[in-house]
Amino acid sequence: MPITRRRVLGVLAGAGALVGVPSLWISRMKTYDGPVSDHFDGLTFFDPDGAPPRSLGEVLRWQLGGRGQRATWPDWAPSPHADTPPARVDGENVRLSFVGHASWLIQTGGLNILVDPVWSTRVSPVAWAGPKRHNDPGIAFEKLPKIDVVLVSHGHYDHLDIATLSRLTKNFAPRVITPLGNDVTMRSWDSTIKVEAFDWHDRVELGGGIAVHLVPTRHWTARGMFDRNKALWASFVLETPAGKIYVVCDSGYGDGTHFRRVAEKHGPLRLAILPIGAYEPRWFMRDQHMNPEDAVKALADCGAQAALGHHHGTFQLTDEAIDAPAKALVEALDAAKIPQERFVAMQPGQVVEI
Predict the structure, then answer these.
(1) What distance in Å separates the CA atoms of residue 236 and residue 213, rounded to the nearest whole number?
(2) C-alpha span between 166 and 233 (Å, rounded)
(3) Distant-in-sequence, close-in-space partners of 5: CB < 8 Å, separation ≥ 6
């Protein structure tokens, strides 16, 4: 296939969901302005224990140079599950419903909490290109209960979906909790979003005895050419009546430092939600996305009683086959001599109660 200008722009739009370089045509955006810290130099955020994002040249090398290695996903791969959640879950139970990719509905203590909600068809800055859904959300938007709180981990298009946030705001007006700088992004598109921005290590009371901690994670963020790491990224530790739940929406493994620190500071953990997909080719993805073998190591490091695997099977962001993460997770658990039931790869619409 010839490399045309339109193809290059389409490739960049497709890569934009996770590498943040699609918006060559977007003007310079407003960005975070705040005091210098051990992970903010006055202009950009950084992870002292992480790695810088890949360059545009490396993006083009991957997307245009080696696409023969990219697995072909089926056009449509419906989940056998679909969920109609209750209005509330009271008491000490927690109900977790997997919407798809990195989107979850967590119900506990009378609160309804959405994590990285994406109901859009594409995760891209443009409507005509970029990763497209291969299955429906596990909960139809019309069947959502009243949403009280939304947690948004970072600004990549497959996690921060402005269209969905605006729709949630119109219907429910929830609090939106996010790391520093992503509030600027949200308000620049929709000033009605009730967003609150926090730093790593902040604890936020959500009500009903529920709280969330924003914790460091090995990743980065961007939405265009001019805002690389101008906002912060984070994972979440939720304090619930059933114990603490560690929600990792996007992360590389590195040497496991971040996961061990969460265990030290926030353990014991009742449950970890860990990404297992979007990891090939490894030379490109290693520093920003875990593969299933890494995720099994992360489970051991954080010490959670059990884990649920997400970030796979809905949007084709990278080169592996649609079913590769779930198969590789089984193999990785066997190799580590960990029971299969301790770490389950979820499908949209599946529900777990603890």
Answers:
(1) 6
(2) 21
(3) none
Rg over CA atoms, the chain:
19
Q: Are 153 and 179 in contact (CB under 8 A)?
A: yes
The DSSP secondary structure of 283-340, one letter per residue, reads HHHTTT---HHHHHHHHHHHT-SEEEEES-SSB--SSS-TTHHHHHHHHHHHHTT--G
DSSP for 68-128, please give it: GGPPPPPS----S------S---TT-EEEEEEETTEEEEEETTEEEEES---SSB-SSSSS
* 3 state DSSP class of 163: helix
Task: Quote the pTM value.
Answer: 0.93
* Long-range Cβ contacts of 66-69 (<8 Å, 24+ apart): 66/281, 69/280, 69/281, 69/319
Name residue, tokens 């497209």: 132
Tokens 């679909």 belong to which residue? 82
On whether the CB atoms of residues 53 and 20 are closer than 8 A, the answer is yes
Q: Residue 269 and residue 305: Cα distance in Å, rounded?
A: 7
> Residue-wise pLDDT tens for the chain (354 aa)?
444 444 444 455 455 555 544 444 344 568 899 999 999 999 999 999 988 887 777 777 877 775 568 999 999 999 999 999 999 999 999 999 999 999 999 999 999 999 999 999 999 998 888 999 999 999 999 999 999 999 999 999 999 999 999 999 999 999 999 999 999 999 999 999 999 999 999 999 999 899 999 999 999 999 987 899 999 999 999 999 999 999 999 999 999 999 999 999 999 999 999 999 999 999 999 999 999 999 999 999 999 999 999 999 999 999 999 999 999 999 999 999 999 999 999 999 999 999
